[in-house]
TrEMBL record:
Superkingdom, natural source: Bacteria
Matching InterPro entries: 3-OHacyl-CoA_DH_NAD-bd, 3HC_DH_C, 6-PGluconate_DH-like_C_sf, ClpP/crotonase-like_dom_sf, Enoyl-CoA_hydra/iso, NAD(P)-bd_dom_sf
GO BP term (any one): fatty acid beta-oxidation
Keyword DNA repair part of the UniProt annotation: no
Lineage: Bacteria, Pseudomonadati, Pseudomonadota, Gammaproteobacteria, Pseudomonadales
Residues of the 3-hydroxyacyl-CoA dehydrogenase C-terminal domain: 481-574, 609-698
GO molecular function: (3S)-3-hydroxyacyl-CoA dehydrogenase (NAD+) activity; enoyl-CoA hydratase activity; isomerase activity; NAD+ binding
Protein name: 3-hydroxyacyl-CoA dehydrogenase
Taxonomic source organism: Pseudomonas nicosulfuronedens
Amino acid sequence: MNSLIRYQVEDGLALITLARPPVNALGQTLRAAVLDACQRAASDASVRAIILHGDGKLFSAGADISEFGSAASFAAPSLPDLLSRLTQLDKPLIAALSGLALGGGLELALACGYRIGEPSLRLGLPEISLGLLPGAGGTQRLPRLIGVAPALDMMISGLPIDANRALELGLLDRLAASADTLVEAARAFALDLLGDLAPARPQTPFAEPAASVAEDFFQQYRQTHEPRWKNRLAPRLVLAAVEAACVLPLQAGLERELALFKQAEDSAQSAALRHLFFAEREAGRIPGIAEDIALRPVARVAVIGAGTMGGGIAMNFANAGIPVVVLEQKSEALERGLANVRRNYESSVSRGKLNAEQLEQRMQLLVGTLDYADIADADLVIEAVFEKLEIKQQVFRTLDEVCKPGAILASNTSSLDVDAIAAVTRRPQDVIGLHFFSPANVMRLLEVVRARETAPDVLATTLRLAKRIGKVAVVSGVCFGFIGNRMLEPYNREAHRLVLEGATPARVDGVLTDLGLNMGALTMTDLAGIDVNFLVRDSNRSAFADDASYYRVGDALYSLGRYGQKTGRGFYLYEGRQRRDDDEVVALAERLASELQVERRLIGDAEIHDRCLFMLINEGIQLLDEGIALRAGDIDLVWTNGYGFPAWVGGPLHYAEQLGLDKVLDGIHRYRDSLGTYGQRWFQPAPLLERLVAAGKTRIEKI
Ligand code: 3HC
Ligand code: NAI
């Protein structure tokens, strides 16, 4: 038998083991092997029932994502076809599920007549996060097995459920006592079924799935959920497929599902999400650093500073079961910080995301101190004190004195030079930047800043640790703003300047949210604080001393005390969470424009889009050229995980490839030539963009 499958017959039971590491992805070769093995079992008169299970830790993570968009995706036997054939076998087929049964893996289990799991099993249909819908019967078979509402919930959330919930829903028939005894329990289950003369496939509880929900269910569902879907295609296709399950017989429903799946697979949105899936995995690999490099153990963490960031950072480790010591200068600040952390957890409890016992367990992992001696044995220390170089350097001098040899010393600075921080220690090789985003316990992005002397094992250790605490880590070189904030600068610049030239803040932001961004650039500035923005700008004024025209509106709002949401006024007026346009801002822009002799005019949406987005893209390409970012995909991860850029657009650089690199370059030239001295000053194409276009490249890479 093929090495992707192990096949063995014992006591009249065929045991078919899927063995395609690392995740038993159901690529063409494995599909063919499963079909072969099942046919062999079906035609062997000594076999009375068939058990399918996964080698190693998991059953299957689903279809092979790398096949999507290529001929291999539906190469025979296609997954839907294979599963339909399995449903026609006349012997009981039992899926013995361990670890994970995701996507096509769960659909494979649904094609079996019976399912047994083990306690740590998680089952899910995460296709939606790849811009897809379950395409191998999931949208038709799951509602028939567990009812429409819970099935739809799994497909729309994409989140897995645990074994107990699956048992409750009837998605599992039995639970083995442990993963180790799963196969044994599956054998016993098979023998029971044979003893009971059970049919190869039992009737499903919801043969008419529509009967499991109210008549206006789909209408209500759309009303509640659609506004949150923005311009995403996949949730709409999922819903259409599940609706089909309610009105069509199984076979016709499966055909409808297949058509919808192909539409999703061919969509630009799915291509974008698949790009991010692989980019996320690629980001963990650093050229020149061996994958098996020995890592430094990290069992104890310390955080310096219990402010907004320090508290959130500490929570990440407590959430992952890693003890954290939080150090402050004064007891009031420490108490305030720890109380904030507790309040944060309490709010999770009130939202049902955590229970009271878990809250206490996490708080017990968090210990406060005012004494550096208490962090001497930490394996990793993350500094999150005020953003002033001298203060941070002083902290690092102390860390150098007290920390054990080999401890990783990290700074959460958002803009300071990590080399200058490392330089005050006698161990710059152990120093690294770990730029968390606010709120640090929520945001997935972590920029890992590799300083000049950061040791390879320090970098590799922090990347692995980031995964342990659920972050998407992206490596950045040292520069002002690192990857994300440096790109934010030209993007914000255009948003501000457009207001000066005649666009309203609402129109600028509207164009960006129409693309799918969580919020527009100016709303984001109001949220982050116009004062914070001003101070960052003030520390770097020399970088745009020759033309600060574009920030005059921001500077003026600052001097009026309009700091954004926190003062109720910024680019907009705020009443609670409600945002309104403000004529005063328009009047202010008019006055400043006339002072600066900037002509005000009607500005179309296309210009807003192109100026903000092309400048964002241009800066990203420049970062790649400078080696600050290692890959285009890394830049896309930063913006989709840290800045609310829509994942289904794939990130700014993937988007540029979709638009066409030549079009982006043409647009930059156009504004360079049409916006006078401002255009000449700022619309300078990145040399790498020019080289890529000249070479006829359609993908962004360093050449
Ligand atoms: N297809 C192809 N490769 C896959 C894969 C899949 N479904 N799932 C994981 N892999 C690969 C990863 O690319 C990675 O490869 P690499 O080592 O070369 O980078 C390797 O398996 C290990 O993956 P992770 O690094 O992500 O390992 P983790 O242990 O952190 O996570 C996982 C494992 C939870 C299974 C995670 O990989 C995951 O979420 N996978 C995707 C699951 C999914 O979306 N399934 C649905 C697929 S679509 C489908 O089934 C359509 C069907 O309805 C027709
Ligand atoms: P904050 O002002 O809320 O907290 C700073 C804390 O550090 C205060 O509690 C203060 O008492 C403490 N502190 C100051 N000096 C100290 C010292 N010598 N020893 C021990 N504790 C000391 O500031 P915030 O917002 O938490 O920022 C901290 C760092 O994180 C800064 O470097 C900032 O640039 C960075 N950052 C902030 C983000 C944000 O959105 N707030 C996002 C990403 C990074």
